[in-house]
Write a structure and sequence with these properties.
Chain lengths: 244, 205
């Protein structure tokens, strides 16, 4: 991609962003506590949907069409395996030393027997899988509740997880490739394969009464689930009822 | 006259007995284990039939599952404040419409199962009281990973009944509540129930 095309693409994106901003109606706050920036977030969300419709999803669909399921899984396995440094450091930071050893074993196994991580041998051998990042560590350290924040292109975050994401770049090989070698290919492949993995959920999104709220709900709940390593406290059902 | 009273009394007695029999004495873990193994066995035996006619599976699931759920409680959770002042009939109609959505989704999802080894019921963990409890299961995915699926149960007069299901931390009640209750607040329960039945209401179906 030449510099000129990049400028055109950037200009196009800006235009979309402005259009998305203009077309949005007045916003009533649906969750003032967790989402006080809803008005802003909805604008970025509309922009992201437009970008997804025009570029991201078609590319992911093409990828999904060309690549058979097995290699697609392989690519996802490869990138998941690559996030080992981030997982490892955060397991340590959260005091989960034993798990950090298991995670190392898993990484070594998948990188060798699993052919650079394309085959997830460790899971087949019932080794536990870990999903940790800096945002989760900040949560474990006490920053439990954080405002919902939608980023252009990258989508749902919280303020906490966005800050966590800043550290990520130093430790993740995909970001390392960009910083040291100016090589964006791993990032692009990572994003496209990730988007392709999410294609089956499109029908749900299209059918939602309020897609913005659906994405927020699903993302925040799943995030909570990850912070608590798959065992979050049950929702306070009584409180839901008391409003009744 | 006496005859009428006799029959009425008998009828009342019979209903009471059957209702008493309908109390589910099983604990939540057993309910999940027995229901899922029955369901997967039926699926195994009649898969070809269900694949050509998914409606059949939906009917079976409906029959086997509905008595295990506390639909009105789920409905009240979903409606929240928006359900204030609605009649029992309106709540019933809404709960019924929602149950259809739920049953159909569940039945269609069931067809994806390839073997009964794909489902594992995990030991109880966390805060469980004699009124509210959570059964944890996990489903083995094709890619070798697992999807955790939890069921929330509450103790009712008819035994333990499920009222929420959570997949990877995402609760059915919470997610549907935030899609549905604003619409109910704006347009009224009858309108929304009608749309759900007609399939025109947009809720992830």
């Amino acid at each position: 991609m030449t510099r000129k095309t990049l400028v055109y693409v950037a200009a196009g994106l800006m235009q979309l962003l402005i259009l998305a901003g203009c077309s949005s109606q007045q916003v009533t706050m649906t969750d003032p506590e967790r989402d006080p920036w809803e008005a802003y977030n909805r604008k970025i969300h509309s922009f992201n949907m437009a970008f997804d419709n025009a570029i991201f999803r078609p590319v992911a669909k093409g990828y999904d069409y060309v690549m058979p399921d097995a290699p697609q899984r392989g690519v996802r396995n490869f990138f998941r395996n690559l996030s080992y440094p981030v997982t490892f450091i955060n397991l340590i930071l959260q005091g989960k030393f034993e798990d950090s050893m298991t995670a190392t074993g898993r990484f070594l196994m998948n990188s060798t027997v699993g052919m650079l991580g394309f085959v997830d041998v460790a899971t087949k051998l019932d080794m536990p899988k870990y999903d940790e990042d800096f945002g989760q560590t900040l949560a474990v350290w006490g920053w439990r509740d954080s405002r919902y924040l939608v980023m252009p292109i990258f989508g749902p975050y919280t303020a906490r997880d966005f800050i966590g994401r800043g550290f990520y770049g130093y430790f993740h090989p995909v970001s390392f490739a960009i910083r040291e070698y100016n090589n964006y290919i791993p990032l692009v492949v990572d994003l496209i394969s990730l988007r392709a993995e999410l294609l089956p959920f499109q029908a749900e999104l299209d059918a939602a009464n309020d897609p913005y709220v659906l994405v927020r709900d699903v993302w925040l709940q799943n995030r909570e689930f990850k912070i608590y390593d798959g065992d979050p406290p049950q929702p306070d059902y009584d409180a839901l009822l008391e409003e009744y | 006259m006496m005859k009428h009273i006799f029959w009425a009394a008998l009828l009342l007695f019979v209903t009471q007995v059957t209702q008493a029999n309908n109390v589910d004495e099983r604990d939540p873990l057993t309910i999940i284990e027995e229901t899922s193994s029955n369901m997967l066995q039926t699926l195994d035996e009649r898969r070809a039939e269900f694949e050509t006619d998914p409606q059949k599976l939906r009917a079976i699931v409906r029959e086997d599952l509905l008595s295990l759920l506390d639909l009105e409680y789920s409905a009240r959770l979903i409606l929240g404040k928006a359900g204030r002042g609605i009649s029992d009939e309106q709540l019933g109609a809404f709960a019924d419409a929602m149950s259809n959505v739920l049953v159909n989704r569940y039945a269609d999802g069931l067809l994806e199962f390839r073997s009964d080894k794909q489902l594992e019921v995990l030991p109880m963990k966390g805060k469980n009281t004699d009124k509210l409890t959570r059964v944890r299961t996990r489903i083995k995915l094709e890619n070798g990973g697992f999807a955790p699926v939890d069921y929330a149960f509450r103790k009712t007069d008819l035994g333990w009944k499920a009222f929420d299901v959570t997949v990877e931390g995402i609760s059915y009640v919470i997610t549907f509540r935030n899609q549905i209750s604003p619409r109910v607040a704006a347009d009224g329960i009858d309108q929304v129930t009608e749309e759900i039945i007609a399939g025109t209401f947009k809720i992830n179906d």
